[in-house]
Sequence to fold (135 residues):
Amino acid sequence: MSCLSVSAGAACAGLRAPAILVVDDDPIIRMDVADSLREAGFVVHEAGDGQEALETLAQTEVDLVFSDVQMPRLDGFGLARRLRAQRPRLPIVLASGLVREDGVPEDLAEIGPLLAKPFALDGLIQRIEAALSRP
Fold:
């Protein structure tokens, strides 16, 4: 691991690496993203849908939630709305292969544009680091 990224730099400086909750109902995508983020120096937790994410967040503190939009039980938009009500300062990055990049509902506009699937890992890490660095 190099000390160039925000996450790896924190680990190199002896600080706690940022914790990310990865939420996706596709276990292969979730595992690939989680493994890649771990390799980049992040602490990663996983959930299979929005409801499971809320259950995980009730027991685990994270610095950012990265979520797919299209999921059963509670989709990414529903999860983002719940998180905005419960933890308004928690950064959220949403991704989808079915919704256009500008398809974020108006009430969630501060999250920024959707990350279009498929995405490059570098693009995901840049989006995460940008969200983590916001005041």
Remarks:
- The helical segments are 6-12, 27-39, 50-57, 76-86, 121-133.
